[in-house]
Write a structure and sequence with these properties.
Elements: E1 7-12, H1 16-27, E2 33-39, E3 43-45, H2 50-53, E4 64-66, E5 78-82, E6 85-88, E7 92-99, E8 103-107, E9 110-113, E10 117-118, H3 130-146, E11 150-153, H4 157-169, E12 176-179, H5 190-203, E13 207-210, E14 228-231, E15 237-240, E16 242-245, E17 250-251, H6 254-259, E18 271-272, E19 287-289, E20 294-295, H7 302-322, E21 337-340, E22 346-350, E23 357-359, H8 362-366, H9 374-380
Parallel strand pairs: 1-2, 1-9, 2-5, 9-19, 11-12, 11-16, 12-13, 18-20
Antiparallel strand pairs: 3-4, 6-7, 7-8, 10-17, 14-15, 21-22, 22-23
Helix pairs in contact: 1-7
This protein binds flavin-adenine dinucleotide.
Residues 12-17, 38-41, 47-48, 50-51, 84-85, 114-117, 119, 123-124, 157-158, 252, 291-293, 300-303, 305 line the site of flavin-adenine dinucleotide.
Length: 393
């Protein structure tokens, strides 16, 4: 058991942001502190492969990675605590349950708020343990198998991948992808949008409608297969039997709304941070926010969330060890992406050959493994199927 005098650096949210910090911390921990990650889910969820796993069966298990190996079982180094954070106070986080060794709250000298965002299924699920997550994926597999004319609403990365996966696996289905803008993924080079459009059109035969929006009924579309006619803003009608919405990202910033309302962007409700990634509230210089939950020019991807978190942690470590003022986070500012578009097909924006280029070739597609690199998550978390999960701690 760690000594009673040990202090905590706490992270709320055990996803990509937290992994970045956990791995950096494990390399160079401080004797005075341990890293506590508060996460409501039992397993790290490898969402990158959810669009594929919502269509194809066989690798769902590999997308739910146990947390138990992350700190090598060394509680003095860090712990992943399974609980929902219910309130943030100046130096404590309150929990929704009793946690052995902590009780109903965890104190901190520094906090990194990394609670991410909520998006509609099948990009994310309201599933808090592995079995429930697998059942959600299988539910979507069943819906998609039954549907003859699925309509995917929203041509962000999730919508594009889902449309491609469905048409690749079920070439006989009529798949439509509708997107509100005239091109895809504006944070990347225009050529990425063009290559994606061409691959969806020519190789996969996905019907694409761009520059138009569907009218979404109050309460959303039903999660069932039945014929419906969807209308669009430009006056089109689309016959479908399954409309899947892949738009709408809501920041999980509610705890900050209560604790430090001025920190939230008045319109978007994402958390506003200083260049140093401290929240924009002079009262709390020891509280940082990173990842998808913040208002930031970085593209909302796992690798940016990871880098921001490492930068925030470094500022905290510098302050603890030398009292140094926090340094501004320097974004790499190079948006990189690999979009998997079904088996052995992909488009990418990469700088791995030097200049920033887009590629959409046979070689890129062939390099993508079936589970879309889920094995990396197992390596980061030092997990094996036998490692304990986060259910009973
Ligand atoms: C389908 C899909 C595919 C993607 N593919 C890629 C990709 O290929 N490459 C890439 O770089 N990015 C990809 N992304 C984006 C990437 O997943 C996100 O940018 C990244 O997950 C953001 O990480 P985060 O840690 O900021 O937040 P999140 O991943 O949103 O995690 C937040 C965590 O906080 C937890 N949490 C929230 N509130 C509480 C609370 N009150 N108490 C306890 N825990 C809480 C949640 O359970 C969650 O685990 C993809 C996203 C999706 C949805």
């Amino acid at each position: 058991m760690p000594g009673a005098d040990i202090k905590n650096i706490v992270i709320i949210g055990g996803s990509y942001s937290a992994l970045g910090s956990a791995l950096a911390w494990s390399q160079a921990p401080l004797p005075s502190h341990r890293l506590i990650i508060i996460e409501q889910k039992s397993h790290f969820q490898y969402v990158y492969a959810f669009p594929r796993a919502a269509v194809k069966t066989g690798f769902e298990e590999s997308l739910f990675v146990p947390y138990g190996g992350l700190f090598g079982g060394d509680d003095r180094l860090g712990q992943v605590v399974r609980a929902k954070a219910t309130a943030v106070k100046a130096n404590t986080v309150e929990l929704d349950r009793e946690v052995p060794g902590f009780g109903r709250s965890i104190s901190f000298t520094h906090l990194i708020y990394a609670a991410g965002t909520t998006i509609p299924a099948p990009g994310h699920f309201d599933a808090y343990d592995k079995q429930a997550g697998i059942e959600c994926l299988k539910f979507y597999q069943g819906l998609i198998e039954q549907s003859q004319k699925p309509l995917i609403i929203g041509g962000g990365a999730v919508g594009i991948e889902l449309a491609a996966e469905i048409k690749d696996y079920y070439p006989e289905k009529e798949v439509t992808l509708i997107h509100s803008r005239d091109y895809y993924l504006p944070a990347y080079k225009h050529s990425l949008s063009q290559m994606t459009y061409n691959m969806l059109k020519n190789t996969l035969k996905v019907r694409q409608i761009r520059g138009d929006r569907v009218h979404i009924p109050e309460g959303g579309f039903p999660h069932e297969v039945k014929p419906i006619v969807v209308t669009t803003k430009n006056g089109k009608t689309i016959e479908t039997d399954l409309a899947i919405t892949c738009i709408g990202m809501t920041p999980n910033s509610n705890l900050m709304a209560t604790f430090s309302e001025c920190t939230l962007h008045p319109k978007t409700k994402f958390i506003q941070v200083k260049p140093t990634l401290q929240i924009r509230d002079e009262r709390y210089p020891h509280i940082y926010a990173v990842g998808d939950v913040i208002e930031h020019k970085d593209v909302k991807t796992g690798h940016y969330a990871w880098n921001q978190s490492v930068a925030a942690l470094q500022n905290i470590i510098n302050e603890i060890t030398s009292g140094a003022p926090p340094a501004p986070y320097v974004s790499k500012d190079i948006p990189l992406i690999k979009l998997a578009l079904g088996d052995k097909k992909a488009v990418t924006q990469t700088n791995s050959l030097g200049p920033l280029i887009t590629l959409g070739s046979w070689i890129v597609g062939r390099s993508v493994p079936d589970d879309l690199y889920a094995n990396f998550a197992w390596l980061w978390l030092k997990a094996t199927p036998n490692v304990p999960d986060n259910v009973e701690r």
